[in-house]
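Task 17 of the worksheet. Students: predict the tertiary structure of the chain below and write it out as structure tokens. Keep your answer in the requested format; marks are given for formatting as well as content.
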Amino acid sequence: MHAGEAGSLAVKLALTTGEPAGIGPELTLMLAAQGALPPGTVAVGDPEMLAVRARALGLAVRIETISPGEALPSLNAGVLPVWPVPLRTESVPGHLETANAAYVLETLDVAIAACLQGHADAMVTAPLHKGVIVEGGFPGFTGHTEYLRDACKVDEVVMMLATEQALHAQVPGWTGESALRVALVTTHLPLRKVADAITAPRLERIARLLHADLKRQFGIAAPRIAVCGLNPHAGEGGHLGHEEQAIITPVLDALRAEGLLIEGPLPADTLFTPRHLRDVDAVLAMYHDQGLAVLKYAGFGRAANLTLGLPLVRTSVDHGTALDLAGRGSADPGSLQVALALAAELSRRKHSGQVHPAG
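Model answer:
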């Protein structure tokens, strides 16, 4: 099936509206008011909260409450279908309420179940606030990525962010439009704990999963991956840290011996330059800010987060809850648009047979 044929396939996207005190609800409403939600999009959240927020922002949006499995109404401008999840307490933009932590997690549970039961083809997540969820009675919560891993009962997932220019193209390299894909070995860890988390088994699992999903979801026949070192100058021969010599290089050598096209470990401060990225499909960074600071500089607001290794398609925005902007109607919905478009495209590719099942 050609790409044009895949693009015509209808898909259903479950969009969780995120932290109710943040910008997630209004970004959803803004796109609904503009008629900019992809066909088949259904929001997951509190219908009354969304209706109140729409009125406060002066957005002409009609909320239509339905249940998973029901047919969606025609997605015209000003119509927002919603799978209802009730708030635990009233929400005011910019003011976190720990009582609503369970509400946010329930929206995720509804979307996950819908995907696994065939009521949705993908889930897209507006931002949540990790701190308020922990304080709301869920001390082990570290983020969407890990929550989805556990809910879907898989051993490993990979967080990958990509700028808009790199989401769809099956071609490598940093271009004038800043096309860049960055995956992470560790995600939401304090920096003090990162080095201990870089183990040979973990690095091998992450690298294999990244390689497999670049092939499976992006259609790249022979992915080329550049790997950052952990330490400055990639350890400088052991003088600035031993992890490269003891852990990272042996794992990469073993993968290269199997035929995987993996370069590194390379110093992170020079890897993210056009010369090194020209022939690279993705960069594998050791920790969160090592890779995502560069990616967000290159394309913040027009990038999306993709969780690799799940039995479902999940994308998200490249930003947080922006509590200081909530309720003003001035937040930029660009990243949410990119995340929705990516989820729709990957879902259509999966239905068309262009994406092969994991495993």
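Marker's comment: The first strand starts at residue 13 and ends at 16. The chain is about 40% helix and 15% strand.
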